[in-house]
């Protein structure tokens, strides 16, 4: 497989914010890479796309080159341990690593794709999201479940959250068949992460979150012009 050279910029800018009522740390690193040319070129060359059968992602994914994933992890792993207070005896593993492109029209969305979601309830499972292509693409929203006040769905909270969601659906019906674009009667958008090329974001996978998709801009299957991101999911 073609190798991809990637270097982290010495001019990268780090910001760590405590967001929401829970004060959950979210990492944002701007100007993360020196040059995105090779990683973007790989996306439109050797990378092979298909649906993600392991999640409800509304689009296509392709495997990220391993040398790129290693370069990212080498430069952020100490930061992840420190910011998220990960016990030092735990080991770090990238469990999934993929390019992502939003391609699903709203008329084809399943109900679970029309509401904020969480990736896992594991305490030290983190999502690394790297915005790549230039463009006026959608950012990522973090949400609070109004009925329960939950922002993070941990193992001990899953039953409460699911029961409340079912009660809401029974009373009000399924969500509108549309992408999440902001607050509604079930969820409150409390933090917005803006899309910027060469911006790397890290947040816990247990947070309720969603892309704030504008179908007219963000639905595009072309890795050269679409909302191309690199997603690395890590667990300790």
Describe what this molecule looks like in 3D.
The chain has 236 residues and is an alpha+beta fold. It is 19% helix and 28% strand. The strands form 2 sheets. It has an 8-stranded antiparallel β-sheet, with helices on one face. A hairpin with a 7-residue loop joins strand 3 and strand 4 (59-63). The longest helix is centred in the N-terminal third of the chain and has 18 residues, at 66-83. The two termini are 28 Å apart. The model has no long low-confidence stretch (mean pLDDT 96).
Distance between the termini: 28 Å
Strand segment count: 11
Largest sheet data: 8 strands, antiparallel
Kindly name the structural category.
Answer: alpha+beta
Q: What's the helical proportion of residues?
A: 10-25%
- Taken from the alpha-carbon principal axes, the silhouette is globular
Oligomer: single chain
Rg, Å, rounded: 17 Å
Number of alpha- plus pi-helical segments: 4
Report the mean per-residue pLDDT as an integer: 96
The SSE string, one letter per element, is EEHEEHEEEHEEEHE
As laid out across the biggest beta sheet, the strand order is 1-2-9-6-11-5-4-3
The share of residues in extended strands comes to: 25-35%
Sequence stretches where pLDDT stays below 50 over 5 or more residues: none
Which helices and strands appear, and what pairs or packs with what?
Layout lengths: L12 E7 L4 E7 L6 H7 L6 E2 L7 E5 L2 H18 L9 E10 L23 E6 L8 E6 L12 H15 L14 E7 L5 E6 L4 E3 L3 H4 L10 E7 L1
Antiparallel strand pairs: 1-2, 2-9, 3-4, 4-5, 5-11, 6-9, 6-11, 7-8, 7-10
């Amino acid at each position: 497989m073609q190798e991809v050279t990637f270097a982290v910029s010495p001019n990268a800018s780090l910001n760590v914010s405590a967001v929401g009522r829970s004060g959950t740390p979210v990492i944002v690193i701007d100007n993360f890479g020196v040059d995105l040319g090779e990683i973007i070129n790989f996306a439109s060359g050797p990378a092979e796309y298909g649906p993600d059968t392991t999640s409800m992602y509304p689009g296509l994914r392709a495997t990220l080159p391993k040398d790129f994933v290693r370069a990212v992890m080498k430069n952020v792993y100490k930061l992840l341990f420190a910011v998220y207070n990960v016990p030092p005896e735990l080991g770090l593993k990238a469990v999934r690593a993929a390019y992502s492109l939003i391609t699903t029209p709203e008329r084809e969305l399943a109900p679970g794709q029309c509401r904020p979601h969480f990736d896992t309830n594991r305490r030290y499972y983190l999502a690394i999201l790297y915005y790549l292509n230039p463009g006026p693409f959608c950012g990522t929203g973090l949400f609070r479940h109004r009925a329960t006040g939950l922002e993070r769905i941990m193992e001990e909270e899953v039953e409460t959250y699911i029961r409340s969601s079912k009660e809401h659906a029974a009373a009000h019906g399924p969500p509108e068949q549309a992408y999440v674009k902001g607050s509604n009667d079930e969820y409150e958008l409390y933090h917005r992460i803006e899309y910027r090329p060469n911006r790397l974001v890290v947040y816990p996978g247990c947070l309720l979150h969603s892309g704030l998709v504008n179908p007219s801009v963000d639905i595009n299957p072309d890795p050269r012009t679409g909302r191309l991101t690199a997603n690395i999911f890590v667990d300790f």
